[in-house]
Amino acid sequence: MKNADLIFDLLGISEEVPLVEKEMARKLKVTFLPPHTRTARTEEFASNLKRTFAKVGVQVIPLEDALMEDGRKVKPGIVIIEEGEGKNGNLAIDRVSGLYQNPIIGINDGEPPIPEQANLQETLDSIVGVLAWNLAHVPVFVEHDRWTICTMNGAIVKCGDWKNPEKDVLNSLVPKLSAQVVPPKREEIVYREKVLDAEERGYGDYIEDFMSSAKVWRDNGLMLAHTSIDDLEYRNRYYKRIVSMYLDNRTGMSYGFLVKQLPAEVQPAVERKNADPGLKDLAWDKLNLHQTDGKNYTCVDLFGKEWIVELPDVWVLSTRSGCNKTDLNPEKDILRLGLHEGSITLETPKKISASACRPSYDTFAILAHAVGNIIIASVLLAIDRNAVFPAALMENGLSISHWHGYPDEFSSLQGYQLHGYENPPVSCSTPQSAAYALSGKIKAIEKNGSSNSEYRGDIHVEPHHGTNIAGVMTLTETAKWVDKMHKEFLSRKQPVVSDE
Questions:
Q1: Gap between the Cα atoms of 224 and 215, Å rounded
Q2: Both 172 and 144 in a single domain?
Q3: Cα separations in angstroms, 24 against 8, 97, 139, 238
Q4: Do 109 and 239 lie in a common domain?
Q5: Residue 493 CB partners (closer than 8 Å, separation 6+)
Q6: Which residues, including other chains, have CB under 8 Å from residue 354's CB and lie 6 or more apart?
Q7: Which of 148, 276, 306, 340 has the fewest CB atoms within 10 Å, i.e. is most exposed?
């Protein structure tokens, strides 16, 4: 997938990334631990799961072959499946070879422990509580007629008959194991500490938009707030430290993001066939990026033509990872993030240190959307100098918002293209999410046909996770649109968000 390779190159992702379910399955290896406790139901489910994994192409490794030389730790790259409630010191987490080396599935008998009539925040806190106690990355709950997959990002995926689970295993469970929830590595990011003064740089209006948007999200309750790791129950201090390490020593987990893509100097794209020989004849079939005369270029296929696009540095203002997105402190909670001189770069406000600004789990997705916006604006500008989208990006920038809900099928947003429902369900922290964001954005605009001049943005659905809205609306306008959609949904007595 050419556009996926482009974003991987820009983000410095060098490993092979599977993008469809069958590829994900073929790259997966799993092993089953002896059950801690078992019921007839979990025993039969585990047997069905093992058989189904093999059927869809997952490599099922016997435990004796999966262990390292010490005879206890599991080799890196192998998913561990744990059945039943274990004792301290003998959990799957005690047998991993490294922090992110062995995703763990925990098989449990019964329904997920979520309070009746729980709201979104209570549901999320309940699932995170399960993760903290059992230390399984993907807890699975098996009931008499169905099974449920839960994840760290709060997804609760209700599956069908567990006696015939092939479809759910391939389309839901495999992507969650293949695309791990892992934050970008801190050492791969260039930090500029305490250099961001929003007022001095003329960002005052943008900051006001952040604050106004946060209030709308706070009032409608649709932006999940913050789950503190100190409020969770742990087996002991050792396991609490493991959870803290897994979360990159964050104080908790917050969900959703608010981003303002800063204005950029966009140059009109040039059809490759009409470009100067110095650009036209570059080895575009071998490389997605070329640098010439100190400028970066890429070549994209859009509207049946090849376009050469100049890629300037990309900068955004973004909410800080871990902050409460509905109660922002503008002096500490808004950072400047960019792709600058080939590196992911993060500038912290003057009142907060780099050590307090961990890389957001959403970094890849945010930058992929921002790069995609530049590419689309460049091509649209070449087609129509009066097109709405590039004018907005160059004059006042664009907004990108993420919340853990989904668009109402009865609501539409003029000029915005919808995409993503067909993608495997992965979270924002994964390379796959970045690929789907960029590729989906480019595919979606082609649906506009002759209406490209009126294109205003895109709505990127991430199944089992949430929605990104990127475009010409301000952050506040976006929040108000979601709020309006939610109220209209409720008036029809249907929920605006879904766990599936």
A1: 13
A2: yes
A3: 17, 21, 20, 33
A4: no
A5: none
A6: 191, 193, 346, 348
A7: 276
Contact indicator for 140, 53 with CB cutoff of 8 Å: no
Task: Calculate the alpha carbon distances from 194 to 88, 106, 166, 249, 363 in Å.
Answer: 43, 42, 51, 21, 20
- Tell me the per-residue pLDDT of 356-367, one tens digit each, with 9 for 90 and over: 888 888 899 999
Sign of CA dihedral 248, 253, 254, 257: positive
Last residue of a domain, one of 155, 178, 201: 178
Is 275 within the bounds of a domain?
no
The answer to whether residues 121 and 209 belong to one domain is no
Give pTM, 2 decimals.
0.93
Q: What is the pLDDT of residues 411-465, one digit of tens each?
A: 789 899 999 999 999 877 789 999 999 999 999 888 765 467 789 999 999 998 8
C-beta separation of 149 from 173 below 8 A: yes
Query: What radius of gyration do the chain's Cα atoms show?
Result: 23
Domain count, the chain: 2
Give the separation between CA 10 and CA 227, rounded to whole angstroms.
32
Residue 407 CA to its chain's centroid (Å): 17
In a domain, 298, yes or no: no
Residues 145 and 196 in one domain: no
Cβ within 8 Å of residue 399, ≥6 positions away: 209, 258, 259, 260, 261, 469, 470, 471, 472, 473, 474, 475, 477, 478
Residues 234 and 345 in one domain: yes
Q: Are residues 191 and 173 in the same domain?
A: no
First to last CA, the chain: 27
Which of 178, 194, 226 marks a domain boundary? 178
CA dihedral of 138, 238, 321, 227, whole degrees rounded to 10: 70
